[in-house]
Recover the amino acids of this structure.
């Protein structure tokens, strides 16, 4: 009769009880050494599975099919050989049921689950045989327990099949924004170059002739060094051009000594600039991509970098095909396939649907074109919160400042502080408020742009002309948290997401009287992004904040509930004042823009505590489109951000 766990079963004579008991206690102290501390085959099996998974089989002992003893180290070595290409990634192992015991033999079902290169799973059942050997259950080692077709001299070989078809990023109508387009990869074969400086000069001249101009320009400064260090027959990649761009300069570069050309398909947006920082790029896989994703990619594959292409790479790229075979190697001859034991065909990627509007995005990109400073424009539909454009300049930008910038909003934030003042009943449209040239709070002097002064005028005039000193004087009426509360009612600082990284804002709260005065017109510690300000502006236009939505198929976990309904007695006067900014304030350039009335607020934001360093802003709406424009180091908003707004609005389809 077997003793119950945890004592080992042992054949012994009656006089050996004390010795056996002491020996049993000693065995319990060793985790996997000798007896597993169990009289049940399942417990011995669990020790084997744990040892295989953790690479600690050396402490166990086994028997062969003929009953001979086999060391754990030998079994470990055989498993590594048999598993071949999978030997460095142990599988997940689990017992799939209880042992079936017949006399001194037990069969236990086991499930083996391999994670294959690329992330696919290969799961299958097997069984492990155990035998009662000298009073202990022992695992019977045989290769087929790893996989039923494995025998001595064979191994598992993994072969990557064709990569999956990459899915498209779709616009708001369900049409591909990014789709396969022909490109020409221009390269150089070092062994055929006769004059490197002359070649670089000719290529530079040709690339500068492409229209519209390549932005950013092609930098060939490192090409001579790359040619020098490459093999004579290598293809040194210079640049990939859309086929239409290449055809413009083909006659100038095709016959240059050493130039080579390769036709390929790349996933591209309609233009080079089109939402470039937001969408990201699709490029040939690089060494660091291969290192970060072992087995998933091969040289020649394409991979998303940055933006939506990078963030949703797994969804868009799909799953490459993979095959696992049992192979046999005989001397130096090629490995012979014994049997294919697993095959997964490539699984195409799943499209990512956005709310982008191609016409609005083109208008946004065109509006920023020619702006030398880093800049951004976000536009969204007021009615449903859909983000229809997210542009970054120059040339689309390498960084998505439209979503991630963390910068002071300047006087555009008077939209927020005015909402707070109206909520508190501190002012009305025609409340007289002085606008002196300067105003001092706690020893800190505040001034207006170009030192202007208005005298005592209706508050609506202070707003339309963007009088800083009037707002600095009104700041105490907001209280310690009034500004932050008004900002939060417009979605700022909210816990919301749009898919890619985005900054929802940080509003100044509390602080010294001087800090509150600065915060009232968008200085101080308040920071925002263009996306956050576009959403806040849309909230004023609609009467309630709704989360901006970039992805139309985003999960519910990305959504935030709507904000509170804004008071009509506050939001209506605010809209009136934002209209007067355009009709008789700081943005009169927009008065004659075709279409529905334009509302807005200009903003010039100082940074680095230096009045000479200023960002330029404009926020506003027309019809169902709200938008925010930011120009880093843009100086006066009237000279930079307002003209951008005019170009954007005139470029929108009517």
């Amino acid at each position: 009769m077997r003793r119950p766990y945890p004592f080992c079963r042992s054949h012994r004579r009656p006089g050996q009880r004390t010795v056996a008991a002491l020996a049993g206690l000693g065995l319990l102290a060793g985790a996997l050494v000798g007896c597993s501390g169990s009289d049940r085959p399942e417990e011995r099996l669990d020790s084997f599975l744990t040892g295989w998974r953790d690479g600690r089989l050396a402490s166990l002992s086994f028997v062969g099919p003929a009953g001979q003893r086999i060391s754990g180290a030998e079994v470990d070595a055989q498993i590594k050989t048999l598993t071949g290409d999978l030997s460095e990634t142990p599988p997940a192992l689990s017992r799939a049921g209880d042992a079936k015991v017949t006399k001194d033999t037990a069969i236990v079902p086991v499930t083996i689950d391999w994670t294959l290169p690329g992330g696919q799973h290969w799961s299958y059942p097997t069984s492990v045989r155990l035998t009662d050997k000298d009073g202990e259950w022992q695992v019977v080692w045989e290769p087929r327990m790893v996989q039923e077709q494995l025998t001595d001299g064979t191994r598992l070989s993994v072969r990557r099949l064709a990569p999956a078809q990459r899915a498209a990023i779709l616009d708001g109508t369900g049409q591909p924004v990014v789709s396969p387009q022909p490109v020409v990869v221009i390269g150089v074969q070092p062994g055929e170059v006769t004059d490197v400086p002359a070649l670089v000069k000719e290529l530079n001249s040709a690339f500068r002739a492409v229209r519209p101009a390549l932005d950013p320009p092609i930098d060939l400064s490192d090409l001579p060094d790359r040619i020098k260090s490459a093999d004579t027959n290598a293809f040194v990649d210079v640049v990939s051009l859309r086929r239409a761009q290449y055809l413009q300069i083909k006659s100038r570069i095709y016959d240059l000594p050493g130039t080579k050309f390769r036709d390929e398909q790349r996933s591209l947006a309609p233009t080079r600039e089109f939402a470039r920082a937001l969408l990201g790029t699709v490029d040939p896989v690089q060494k660091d991509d291969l290192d970060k994703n072992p087995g998933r990619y091969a040289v020649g594959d394409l991979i998303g970098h940055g933006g939506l292409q990078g963030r949703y790479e797994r969804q868009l790229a799909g799953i490459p095909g993979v095959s696992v075979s049992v192979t046999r190697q005989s001397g130096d001859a090629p490995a012979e396939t014994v049997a294919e034991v697993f095959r997964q065909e490539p699984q195409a990627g799943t499209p990512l649907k956005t709310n982008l509007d191609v016409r609005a995005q083109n208008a946004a990109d065109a509006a920023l074109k020619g702006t030398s400073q880093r800049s951004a424009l976000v536009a969204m539909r007021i009615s449903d919160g859909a983000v229809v454009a997210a542009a970054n300049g120059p040339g689309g930008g390498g960084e998505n400042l439209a979503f991630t910038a963390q910068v002071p909003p300047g006087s555009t934030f008077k939209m927020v502080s005015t909402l707070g003042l109206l909520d508190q009943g501190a002012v009305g449209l025609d409340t007289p408020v002085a606008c002196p040239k300067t105003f001092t709070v706690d020893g800190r002097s505040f001034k207006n742009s170009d030192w202007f002064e208005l005298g005592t005028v209706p508050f609506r005039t202070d707003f339309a002309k963007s009088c800083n000193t009037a707002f600095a004087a009104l700041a105490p009426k907001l209280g310690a948290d009034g500004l932050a509360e008004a900002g939060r009612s417009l979605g700022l600082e909210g816990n919301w997401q749009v898919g890619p990284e985005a900054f929802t804002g940080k509003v100044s709260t509390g602080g010294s009287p001087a800090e509150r005065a600065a915060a009232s017109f968008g200085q101080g510690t308040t920071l925002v992004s263009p996306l956050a300000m576009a959403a806040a502006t849309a909230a004023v236009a609609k009467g309630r904040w709704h989360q901006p939505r970039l992805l139309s198929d985003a999960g519910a976990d990305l959504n935030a509930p709507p904000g509170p309904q804004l008071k009509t007695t506050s939001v209506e006067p605010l809209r009136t004042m934002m209209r007067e900014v355009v009709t008789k304030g700081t943005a009169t350039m927009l008065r004659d823009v075709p279409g529905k009335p334009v509302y807005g607020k200009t903003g010039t934001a100082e940074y680095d505590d230096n009045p000479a360093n200023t960002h330029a802003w404009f926020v506003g709406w027309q019809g169902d489109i709200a938008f925010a424009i930011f120009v880093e180091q843009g100086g006066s908003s009237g000279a930079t951000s307002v003209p951008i707004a005019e170009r954007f609005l005139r470029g929108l389809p009517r």
